[in-house]
Here is the input.
Amino acid sequence: MRSLTITVVVALLGTQQAAAQRPDSLRADSIARARADSIRIVRELEAMTARPAQQPRNPRLLPDISAVGDLIGDLSPKGSTQEDGSRFGVRELELALQAAVDPYFRGDLFLGFSDAEGVHIEQAFLTATALPWRLEARLGRFLAPVGKQNTTHRHDLHTVEHSYVVQRFLGEEGLKGTGVYLARVFSPLGFYQELILTAVDRIGEAPEDLAAVEPANENLSGLGYSARLRNYWDLSEAANFELSASAMTGVREQPLTQGVDLDDQLVNAALARQTTVGLDATFRWRPLEQGLYRSFILQGEFMRQLNRDPENFPPPLGLPDYAGPRRDFSGAYVFARYQVSRRTFIGGRYDWVQDPEAEGVSLTAGSGVLTFFPSEFSKLIASVERRSLKGFGGTTRLLLQASFAIGPHKPHPF
Amino acid sequence: MSRNFLLTLSLAVAALAVRPAEAQLRVVTSTPDLADIARQVGGTRVVARSIGQGYQDPHFIEAKPSFVLDLAKADVWAFVGLDLEIGWMPLLLDGARNPKIRPGGAGYVDVSKAIPVIDIPTGNVDRSQGDVHALGNPHYWLDPANGRRIAWLLRDKFTQLDPAGASTYTDNAKAFEARLGAAEQAWAADLAKIKAKPVVAWHTSWRYFAVYTGMNIVGFMEPKPGVPPSPSHLAGLIQTMKRTGAKVIVMEPFYDRKTADFVASKTGAKVLVLPPSVGGRKGLDDYVSLMKYDITQLAAAVQ
Here is the structure.
């Protein structure tokens, strides 16, 4: 046993001595090979650790589900100014379901729930995501791309309510349309431009209490059509400017002085063309380094609503006359907001509109807005507004809003 | 006449001869760190630019339409992932209408897929925990080991999209790795000074940096990720710093320095503003310079 041990030790020493006598080049080759092997092993280990057996994030292929709550308080000194007279109310809950449909389309569904309207489809559209030539196409119901503010969800506005020009010309909640949407991005002049065209079933919702001889969409010329051209410039790293123009046209039911019975059908409206044109500008400033704490936005929109008399009016004697708008109306707003701290913003808006609901009498309003964001997912707003209808005095409104979002993180609106 | 013609022809040939090689791939990245590594790996075969700047909070980049124009022409969109860009990336990708860089496209590169991610929450995750990243901490580029992984991932992607440049991309990735390795040897002494030293960080963005340097983060200025410091939290943090002997507050340039200065005044600590990304400070135009600057500044501060 002892002799065996001695033999092994001698053999090992001999081997070591032989290795020590190898030429330097051979040793260098050996080191290089060892290094290469070592790097290969490290790569393999890294590959293993870098790509652990990952579970799919969404094995059931469920859509993103999110919800937004929009709560309103009206503490106006002379009573609530809300349509339903409430002091506190849930203005709307919005449930969103969003997912890729297949490699070619994405689906977005927004359902609205409110006491006034019950359950309703806010938006529901299919977006083609694989079109050439920087085209985007949508089919379904969407926010009408008319003006700047109307393309923003009401709960995402910087103010509690839409501007008065949007409320009076496009609707209290803004204007939606159901149809086809086609947009193309281009930059032949070196800056961002986007042209958006839509064709929708009609402009605005069909009034429940007005009926014309034929539906507004009887002819293709009666559908709603819109175009919007966006132009965007970076003024500096921190500042940018957008100047856009919009136009929309279609026919709507407008009231007659009285209803008539035609073939057992009450007709109390005529179809009249209404066109809205507008110009909007937005200036934004947000320094990149201190962008969490400071920002400023200045925005303004001007719109003009052009109303045309329907055909065959004035009518022969004895038949009801046209009682819809026989003049054009204009309106505008200017809004500014400054960020004073990471979570606090102050802003103000001035509105002016020739109110179609008051035969064009000028409505003016000035409001101050204080906004506090506890986080990205909740928002609290307090707003004081003085609103006047020329010749009819003024009203002071004190509005509060709390909105919150639950579910997956959504992109920040720009 | 023929002389003029020959002169013109010669000038034209000369102009063509000196024309730089046409870039093969247009690369857009979410952060300047990814853009720099893409340039290092791609060399003259790629043109890379970043949406975000090094002194900007990458969580809150604005989805400006001008970025859409860059993305519309991109062959590769490389981003950090782990929901770091969730607040703005979807708007830009939708706006760009470029199938190559949409999810499922060959140019859509979620770099986090190559990274061993840390801080993956366990148990139930909800927003009461702050702006928590449910998939893990996304600030992984501040560990050079992950810098290498990013380089090799981009090498693979560039090679897939531009096979003719395969050897160039591999050589460049090796050269990048060698530069980083040499720099690591140079700053090894600084790492030894940093190891185990207690520090306070503003946000969890320094967790990978801590793993690499060995600095011991004993507290955060934010009570929860993305939540601004509250007075009660700061009071507790001051006690923690006194107890642990933390003498450095590490923060990014885009946070409110006044709050950090207040805590420093109560503890005798030093506020160290470190750029978290390439370009976060003038002169730090590449990844190795960034890492070197952050490590040497921290080593000096903890002494």
